[in-house]
């Protein structure tokens, strides 16, 4: 019963959201049906993961509306998730960790993929840490057992959650944390840090505006993170960054809600790691 499972996650403090369901033929329960490009993987709620809840009454109401809803779990609250979506991704992850994969919770997903749960890092989603390996962090979500994959297979536990999650192993966290894409941190104090920051803002906004479909959200997240580091160092105004990146992301075709959520998590994570080697000269 997916309601029982949803309530159990919520009791453990994990915000839950109802997600669309694939039918036996792999068509999505959304209006796009067989033409949906993410069958059974996108939220049923208008504001998506931002409406995820731990309130049992809210969850019970949702599942009375959609008894077969897949279960989405908001990441970045109780757990972050390494999202392995192929055998190649699993091979790459094991290679990265020297076959020393922590014995934390693991989910078998639809297509030879796995989810590995770790303590939250504070970072947002990261796409393509390695081929076939993404990271779901602040502002993201994953599907949980017994959700159904479009292939017809149900998500299932390889190892169930127990009290206390393992921290992400260092080599994996290093990938999640960076390297921060351009603009690269300056190796020497910069003579005009304000001007440098302005140039970075222009470059990142341009990159976001031109990001192709499929990379837009990740590009925006990276830009927000990079510029958040300038905000944290007092070199850029957070409101100006939000304004510029919002305009660029709208140009790229992203929706308001997605932009807001991604900006918030990216900027927050960036501000936690302010640049400290740009010197303190006046611009
Ligand atoms: Zn759909």
Describe this structure in words.
By secondary structure, the chain is α+β, with helices and mostly antiparallel strands. The protein has 2 domains: 175 residues, Prim-pol fold (2-Layer Sandwich), CATH 3.30.2250; 93 residues, no CATH class. Helix content is 36%, strand content 14%. The protein contains 8 helices and 9 strands. A 6-stranded antiparallel beta sheet has the order 6-7-3-5-4-9. A 3-stranded antiparallel beta sheet has the order 1-2-8. Helix 5 runs antiparallel to helix 6 and helix 6 runs antiparallel to helix 7. The C terminus is likely disordered. Zinc ion (ZN) binds next to loops.
Give keywords:
Prim-pol fold, 8 helices, single chain, 9 strands, 6-stranded antiparallel beta sheet, binds zinc ion, about 280 residues, alpha+beta
List the helices and strands and how they pair.
Layout (H helix, E strand, L loop, with lengths): L1 H10 L4 E4 L36 H10 L4 E5 L5 E5 L2 H10 L9 E3 L5 E5 L7 E5 L2 E4 L4 E4 L11 E4 L10 H8 L15 H17 L6 H17 L5 H15 L3 H16 L12
Zinc ion (ZN) binds next to loops.
The arrangement of helices and strands along the chain is: HEHEEHEEEEEEHHHHH
Share of helix, binned: 25-40%
CATH architecture of the largest domain: 2-Layer Sandwich
Strand order of the largest sheet: 6-7-3-5-4-9
Cα-to-Cα separation, first versus last residue: 61 Å
Number of strands: 9
Low-confidence stretches at least 5 residues in length (pLDDT < 50)? 279-283
Instruction: Count up the domains.
Output: 2
Question: From the alpha-carbon coordinates, what is the Rg to the nearest angstrom?
Answer: 20 Å
Report the CATH topology name of the largest domain: Prim-pol fold
Number of helices: 8
Structural class: alpha+beta
Largest sheet: 6 strands, antiparallel
Enumerate the distinct ligands.
zinc ion
> Judging from the principal axes of the Cα atoms, what is the shape?
globular
Please state roughly what percent of the residues sit in beta strands, choosing from under 5%, 5-15%, 15-25%, 25-35%, 35-45% or over 45%. 5-15%
Q: Can you identify the CATH class of the largest domain? A: Alpha Beta
């Amino acid at each position: 019963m997916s309601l029982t499972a949803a309530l159990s996650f919520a009791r453990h403090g994990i915000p839950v959201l109802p997600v669309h369901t694939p039918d036996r033929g792999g068509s999505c329960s959304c209006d796009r049906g067989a033409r949906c490009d993410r069958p059974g993987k996108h939220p049923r709620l208008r504001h998506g993961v931002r409406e995820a809840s731990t309130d049992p009454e809210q969850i019970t109401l949702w599942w009375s509306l959609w008894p077969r809803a897949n279960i989405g779990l908001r990441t970045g609250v109780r757990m972050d998730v390494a999202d392995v979506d192929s055998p190649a991704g699993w091979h790459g992850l094991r290679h990265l960790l020297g076959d020393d994969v922590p014995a934390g919770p693991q989910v078998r997903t639809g297509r030879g993929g796995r989810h590995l749960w770790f303590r939250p890092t504070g970072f947002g989603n990261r796409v393509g840490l390695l081929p076939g390996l993404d990271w779901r962090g602040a502002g993201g979500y994953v599907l949980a057992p017994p959700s159904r994959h479009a292939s017809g297979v149900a998500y299932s536990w390889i190892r169930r959650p127990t009290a206390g999650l393992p921290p992400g192993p260092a080599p994996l966290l290093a990938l999640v944390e960076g390297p921060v894409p351009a603009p690269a941190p300056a190796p020497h104090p910069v003579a005009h840090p304000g001007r440098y920051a302005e140039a970075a803002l222009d470059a990142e906004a341009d990159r976001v505006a031109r990001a192709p479909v499929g990379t837009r959200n990740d590009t925006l997240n990276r830009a927000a993170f990079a510029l958040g580091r300038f905000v944290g160092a007092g070199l850029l105004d957070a409101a100006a960054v939000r304004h510029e990146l919002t305009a660029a992301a709208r140009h790229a075709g992203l929706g308001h809600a997605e932009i807001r959520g991604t900006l918030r998590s990216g900027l927050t994570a960036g501000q936690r790691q302010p640049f400290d080697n740009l010197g303190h000269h006046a611009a």
